[in-house]
Amino acid sequence: MSAGLSYKRSSSQPHRLKPFRRAVVLLLSALLFLSGCLPPWLASPTPTASPPLPTATPPVSPTPSTEALATPTVSEPLVLWLPPQFDPESGSRAGNLLKERLAAFEQENGIQIRVRLKAVNGPAGLLDSLTLASAAAPAALPSAVLLPRRDLEDAALKGIIYPLDGLSTAIDTSDWYDYARELALVQGSVYGLPMAGDSLGLVYRSEWLAHSPNSWQEILEQRYTFTFPAQENQSLVTLALYLSAGGDTQDTQRRPLLEETPLQTVFTWYRSAAERAVIPIWTAQVETYSQAWQAYQDQRTTMVVAWVSTYLSDFPPDSLFAPLPSLGDAPASLATGWVLAVAEPDPQRRVLAARLCEWLTQSDFLGAWSEAAGVLPVRPSAFPLWKNQSFVPVFQRMAETARPIPSNEVITVLGPVLRESTLEVLQLKTLPASATQDAVKKVANPGVK
């Protein structure tokens, strides 16, 4: 059989039981019912107190021997879980490149790869599927899985993916952007290899603006309209501006933090922009980046905050992309991305799974693939391989200066507080100083109204 991608759909068929076996099964079921015993994945968990700061705990399993690391012998196919947007069978250029890359790995290592697509969110999504399989059917876990950064963090803290210590040193090379290397880390340990990045920036109409805005003050003076998803619960735009003004998100004990001076700087600009209608009043109703992007496409605004991936997928001919201007000395670009992680429970197969992660994140592949997939590169060596070099200067600058979105724990605390205060300022209900003081107090004293 020639090397190539093989897909297999799970199926189940009823097995007929002989009368004697049926009687035994019925008897055992009755005993279980009477004794109140249920399989652990069906029983209701006993409530326990959650620690304030979860610690990443890798799954416990035998460590592969030195010989196994060098020459693993595996006959069963490796299983790779991917989100739909990276489907190797999509027929797109990015899909074809990935399909060819997987086939080359199969041929070089003498093993098949089965790709299974999982939704990004929801009960059948990547993280939920990993969690359920880990608890109920470890044999159903994938060998490797491509996870968004937020899910990588959760999976590591739950102990359902493996750190790469002893499996790979690829992250130690110099050919990674700083933001990408940080995406792979959870509490200081490497839990994957970055494959694709994304970052927030500013899209503007080049026919109206001669150059990208250099500052937020310039945007105020030009009086061109600007919008973003003010209703977004993570409040990433406000957070990005706060960080660019010099704010920190954690104190010395790593507890969530908001600082008064940089936050008031952000709210003061919001107030001025709202009073001059630079930020339209309807911005307070925008919940998602897709809604903000649609408003931009409908010609309702001159500038919009958008993801690199959104711009590259739609690529409006009258628009250009630029980093978000800063409100201080620090860059304002926030980044996230997709990271390949190892979930393979078998030690020998885990070695090959880690090798697959390395194979799919090598620079000779990521160069052409990142451009075709419309993502921000994670390696500096990728940009010289892009065919459209006109994009390179701005995206290269963003990749060099972007910082990762703070941890899930920090975002969970800061996001809703920043959202509430942002809306009050944009709707001219609260002055910047009051909104700042309220937000700082809510974070410093959670649960106190």
Automatic annotation (TrEMBL):
InterPro entries: Bact_solute-bd_prot1 (IPR050490), SBP (IPR006059). Residues 48-69 are annotated as: Disordered. Residues 48-62 have a biased composition (Pro residues). Transmembrane segments: none annotated. Keywords: Signal, Transport. The keyword NAD does not apply. Belongs to the bacterial solute-binding protein 1 family. This is Uncharacterized protein.
